[in-house]
Amino acid sequence: MEAREVILRPVITEASMADLDDKRYTFDVNTQATKFQIKDAVEEIFDVKVANVNVMNLKGKKKRMGRYEGYTKKRRKAIVTLTPESKEIKIFEEE
After folding, report:
1. Host H or E run for residue 43
2. What global pTM score does this model have?
3. Residue 33: phi, psi to the nearest 5?
4. Which of the ends of the chain has fewer CB neighbours closer than 10 A, N or C?
5. Which processes are annotated in GO (biological process) (predicted)?
6. Is residue 93 assigned to a domain?
7. How distant, in Å, are the alpha carbons of 3, 23, 82 from that of 49?
8. Which letter does DSSP use for residue 19 in this model?
9. Buried b (16+ CB within 10 A) or exposed e, 15-25
10. What pLDDT, on the 0 to 100 scale, is given for residue 95?
11. In the chain, what's the furthest Cα-to-Cα distance?
12. Domain of residue 56, CATH code
């Protein structure tokens, strides 16, 4: 699996933005990716040094449209902690 297939998108929430000061970044990742693949992909894409990777599996929520019901898709979320001497990841490009 290539690095761009492992990391899907950054998660932009109020809680994840508060963790940026501690060099903790949250990403949606492929549901089949392992911690080692996530670590290698982040180091390759952003050219940083990863200290720790925490992973969560999130089930889909139950949704209804009239009398029909189903589930949203499941996803996998990774919280990546960088080493103190590593540079920061620029999620928003400044011009």
Report:
1. helix 35-46
2. 0.88
3. -75, 140
4. C
5. translation
6. no
7. 15, 11, 6
8. G
9. ebeeeeeebbb
10. 59
11. 55
12. 3.30.70.330
Closest alpha carbon to 24 in 2, 6, 51, 3 = 51
Do residues 11 and 28 lie in contact, with contact meaning Cβ atoms separated by under 8 Å?
A: yes
Count of structural domains, the chain: 1
pLDDT in tens, 24-79: 999 999 999 999 999 999 999 999 999 999 999 999 999 999 999 999 999 999 99
Helix (H, G, I), strand (E, B) or coil at 39: helix
The residue to which tokens 């940026």 are assigned: 20
Distance from C-alpha of 78 to C-alpha of 93, rounded to nearest angstrom: 22
Any idea what DSSP says for residue 72? P
- Cβ contact 65:45 at 8 Å: no
The boundaries of the domain holding residue 44 are 3-82
